[in-house]
Amino acid sequence: IDSDYNALTDALGLLRNDTKNAAGTQVEALGVEIDTITMTARLPQKKLDKAVQLVTETLNARRLTLLQAQKLAGFLSFCSAVVTLGRTYLRRLWTFTSTFTKPRSFRPLTDGVIEDLVWWRDLLPRFNGAFSHTYEPYERELHINTNEIRAIELAFKHWAIYWAHATVIVHTDNTTAEIGILKGHTKSAGMDNLRQILITAASLDIQLHAQRSFCRLSQRETWPATRETLGLWIVQRAFGSNAPHMGQVQGTTLQSYLSALRSVHVDLGLSINVFEEDHIQRLIQGAKNLFPAQSRRKRLPITRDILLDVLSKRATRGEDPIDTRNLNAAFTVAFSGFLRMGEFTYKASDLIDTRRFATERLTKRCITLSATRDHMILHLPRSKTDHDNTGVDIVVATAADDACPIHHMDTLLQQEPKEDGQPLFRLSNGAFTRAAQHAYNQHLSQDQIQALGRWGSNAFKRYYKTNPQRLFSLQRQFLTGHTAPPTN
């Protein structure tokens, strides 16, 4: 074929650029990567990196000239041909270019432009690629109900991994699709597609939202929520119902559901006053009083003695050395640095976007050991209390026993060399904010505990309890005016 094509173009006198010839199922043409196996057209990695770099530089500069704005808008317009939602998040940039009165003057970016550019920077890798599907003859005859369910199935196929351990609200104007998802079955031909949706949701711990079903069944408007709608919904969930997904839940669970609904209202720009009303809060408190939470297995706070037991040779006997190194380093650093679970763990889905992982999670570059090994600097790229997302530097000191974080971190880095952007630990769970208990037992003041744990409020008080020895001492002082240690 190539020889015939070359002979034909030569005969016609047409110029060719043979350096751009490509063969295979994945080739680049006109600046776009075409994959005939997955039937997608997407940006090549170089152009993807260029787009992210240009947007990041623009966000850092916070201002543009007309020429710079036009160049950026033009390049992102090219990208939009194969980037889902690309044009949606480009409109305000084009509007911004039309506001220039002098071509060489600088204009600050508007809030709308910044919001759109943040989308390009953070979500472009996820939305890179346009999908094409050739309908089989039988598919052209499918009922609209089946096609509606298939659309939801495709959404779960492409994006469900990003929704793991979350609640997903499915908005559809098709009654069969909605009822099928709520009940878990349908009599239509879309049952196979529905089954795949529910299997995917179950495997990734995805919960489908039920508030919409309550409003539909009671023929009420979903958004915005009203006092009457919320009140009836709270009562129905507190006592339970035979309606789909309207089973009984505890008052504490209802409180979390209400917080989720409030968050949706914030995202949609709706009023949240109804969630602050005393009537709604009293209903939630009533649910808690009528149906108190079941007692949970007692969990001891993490103290230094418990940590030493976890690190002992007896506890790690028979353990894989790799696991021991990772666990020992993670446990001691988490304890010493008052780290929260989400600050030193990650999920498998977080590794999909390596660029974002390197900027938001703990990696090797986040650790700086002092030359004398008497301390290290732990840089947290993201933290619950770091509202500006500028990162937090934590000084971790050495210790003279087996719970020394410097020793275990040094051992981990020496025996398991890592690239700068690789995950620092290989863990998936854990919580060590209760190191506050040990700090309290060591007679640190509340201000000192709050500073070590980087708490911005009095929430830190939930992480420790007064130990019996201190209670005895206080009680003795109250009764006699003198303090004395309890006898064994």
From TrEMBL:
SUPFAM superfamilies: DNA/RNA polymerases
Key words, A-Z: DNA-binding
GO MF annotation: an example: DNA binding
Gene3D superfamilies, per database record: 1.10.150.130, Intergrase catalytic core
Gene Ontology biological process terms, A to Z: DNA integration; DNA recombination
Protein name in UniProt: DNA/RNA polymerase
Lineage: Eukaryota, Fungi, Dikarya, Ascomycota, Pezizomycotina
